[in-house]
Amino acid sequence: TDPVHASTVWAGVLIGGVTFTGSIVAFGKLRGLLSSEPLSLPGKNLINASGGLACLGLAGLFMTTEDPTMAQTALLATTGISFGLGAHMTWSIGGADMPVVLAVLNSYSGWALCAEGFMLANNLLTIVGALVGSSGAILSYIMCRAMNRSLTNVIFGGWGTVGGGGGQAMAVTGTHREIEVDGVVDMLVNAKSVIIVPGYGLAVAHGQYAIANIVRILKEHDIEVRFG
User: Fold this and answer.
1) Which residue of 92, 153, 171, 201 is most buried, as measured by CB atoms within 10 A?
2) Residue ranges of the alpha helices (H) in the chain?
3) Does residue 196 contact residue 211 with C-beta atoms inside 8 Å?
4) 227 has which bridge partners?
5) Are 195 and 215 in contact, with CB atoms under 8 Å apart?
């Protein structure tokens, strides 16, 4: 078997499997079908590391064996492990980071398509996959820079933490204040400088257009607007 052909087949299966189940979990979190809280299984870091090492071992077996049955078994095992890794890694990320995760998964889909283009000797698939993969990677980097976080911190945010922590919950201090829409409008109009901190709720509610209108109106009144 041609090593290049075999490696692209394996890469396409691995990346595609992670993208498939990861996208399903991300959709569930954004749709509210799944809890937005990150999943913290005991030994989750060991699970991810073991899955990655197992896939590398299966890749070596797939590309070196001369037995078609063994190669098919290795590929099917890689598919199953990639499904589990995609679901577990995405489930372990909090809902607030899902927009970045979607950009990463979009990049993954592009690289999977690029691998399939190499496998099928199809230049169109290779070029389109490279464009989708690179644009998704660039978008992920820009979003992480805007959040003042690294991509590895988002994807492996729970790395090194102990799942299912015990102890007493942190006490909530401070004074709770409620404000009506009219009060918010009055505060904005009479302010000299406004700082807007977008969050997960804004993304889910598709409130970016309303925020853009508010920023435009405030700037028309010579009010400084910044984003935090």
Assistant:
1) 92
2) 3-31, 44-64, 68-91, 98-120, 123-146, 151-155, 181-189, 200-204, 208-220
3) yes
4) 196
5) no
Residue 12 to residue 140: CA distance in whole angstroms = 21
Task: Indicate the average pLDDT of the chain.
Answer: 84
How confident is the model over 49-78, as pLDDT tens digits?
899 999 999 999 998 888 989 999 999 999
pTM: 0.68
211 forms bridges with which residues in the sheet?
Answer: none
pLDDT per residue over 188-202, tens digit each?
888 899 988 877 677
Confirm if 199 and 76 have CB atoms less than 8 A apart: no
Segment 141-149 long-range contacts (CB within 8 Å, at least 24 positions apart): 143/99, 143/100, 143/103, 144/100, 147/100
C-alpha to C-alpha distances, 139 to 90, 111, 131, 146, nearest whole angstrom: 18, 15, 12, 11
Q: Which two tokens stand for residue 175?
A: 């004074």
Cβ-based neighbours of 160, under 8 Å, separated by 6 or more: 45
Cα 29 to Cα 27: distance, rounded to the nearest angstrom: 5
For 146-150, the CB contacts below 8 A with 24+ separation are: 147/100
> In Å, how far are 26, 55, 104, 168, 220 from 152, measured between CA atoms?
17, 20, 11, 29, 40
Give per-residue burial for 184-194: e unless 16+ CB within 10 Å, then b.
eeeeeeeeeeb
CB 87 within 8 A of CB 35: no
Pairwise pLDDT comparison (207 vs 114), residue with the higher score: 114
Q: Which two tokens stand for residue 167?
A: 């102890």
